[in-house]
Amino acid sequence: MTLTRTELERVLEGVGPWVRGAAIQQVRAPDRERVYLSVRRPGETRWLLLCAARGLGRLHYVERPPPNPRESLAFQGLLRKELGGVVTQVDRLAGERIVRLTTQRGGVERSLVLEVYGAGGNIVLLDEEDRVLGRAGPARRPGSAARRGEPWVGPEGEGAWVPVEGAGTHGADDVSAELAHRYAAREEDEAVKARLRDAQSRLRGRRKEIQRRLKRQERDLERSGDPEVHRRRASLLQGSFHRMERGRSEVEVTDWEAEGQPTLMLAVDPSREPKEIVAAAFARARRAERARDEAGQRIAESRSALDEVETLLELLGTDPDEAIPLVDELLPTRARQAAARRAAGPRLPYLAFRAPSSHEIRVGRRSRDNDELTFRHSKGNDVWLHARGRPGAHVVIRGPGPSPSPELLIPAAQLALLHSGMKEGDRGEVTWTRVKHVSKPKGSKPGSVVPTQDKVLYVEIEPETLAKLERIEG
Question: Is 292 exposed, middle or buried (0-12, 13-18, 19+ CB in 10 A)?
Answer without folding.
Answer: middle
